[in-house]
Automatic annotation (TrEMBL):
Alphabetic keyword roster: Amino-acid transport, ATP-binding, Nucleotide-binding, Transport
Source taxon at top rank: Bacteria
Protein name: High-affinity branched-chain amino acid transport ATP-binding protein LivF
GO MF entry, a single one: branched-chain amino acid transmembrane transporter activity
One Pfam family recorded for the sequence: ABC_tran
Similarity remark: Belongs to the ABC transporter superfamily.
Entries under SMART domains matching the protein: AAA (SM00382)
GO biological process: L-amino acid transport
CDD domains: ABC_TM1139_LivF_branched
InterPro entries in alphabetical order: AAA+_ATPase (IPR003593), ABC_transporter-like_ATP-bd (IPR003439), ABC_transporter-like_CS (IPR017871), BCAA_Transport_ATP-bd_LivF (IPR052156), P-loop_NTPase (IPR027417)
Amino acid sequence: MLELKGINVHYGSTQVLWDVSMSVGRGEIVSVMGPNGSGKSTVLKAAMGLKKASSGAVILNGTDLQGKSATTRPRQGMSIVLERRRLFPRMSVRENILLGAFTRPQKDARRAFDEVLDTLPDLKPHLNATAGKLSGGQQQMVAIARGLMADPRVLLMDEPFLGLSPIMVKTVSGIMKSINERGVAILFNEQNAKLSFALSHRGYLLESGRVVLSGSGEEMLDHPEVKRVYLGVGAAAK
Ligand SMILES: Nc1ncnc2c1ncn2[C@@H]1O[C@H](COP(=O)(O)OP(=O)(O)OP(=O)(O)O)[C@@H](O)[C@H]1O
């Protein structure tokens, strides 16, 4: 349903993505894993149109989105949960969530709001709280709720576990699974190989802006290179 084809991205004269091709099928959870600075966030930003690719195509359900602005993409069925949550800290949780429906008529927004709270019931007691006062994990839930308000078929999640406690990591990965079970495909990035590939149906390994490996979550976890470099398996025996 979402395809990135031969994406090249530059910041100024520096190229940071090289011929990146990825796909996300209907109902899949797909991860982009790689070290710091390998270009994971840039992949998601290019998919969402927040960073313009120098060349290549972003295709969503057969429509080429290249050249169409980020603001049109929620209507096409794609939304993004940005890194570090990017909430409006002085606004209430309710206001932050409702912002996610800016492209939808009010009646649809109200219905979407109720559905989103069914998916994330833990937010109900906090709707009138100031977003900036919530814990990191709760803020991540608000960011996910905001992303869901556009009723996406594909949800992009930029480092959804960043800075969360192990318990909140479990909670958020559970939320991702339940969103996915409701028919939403997810493309997310994460630096931790185990977390990335254990949660995803398929994954990509990105190094220095290039896809160097891809496969099912299990294949990725079992790959000798992933094991050696990213899981530290074997190193301890020496
Ligand atoms: N706005 C920007 N201007 C210039 N260079 C940038 C900008 N954003 C990212 N870069 C560079 O592009 C490269 C890829 O960055 P990106 O944030 O996509 O990597 P990442 O894998 O998501 O890293 P991290 O895990 O640290 O978030 C890095 O070398 C980074 O320094």
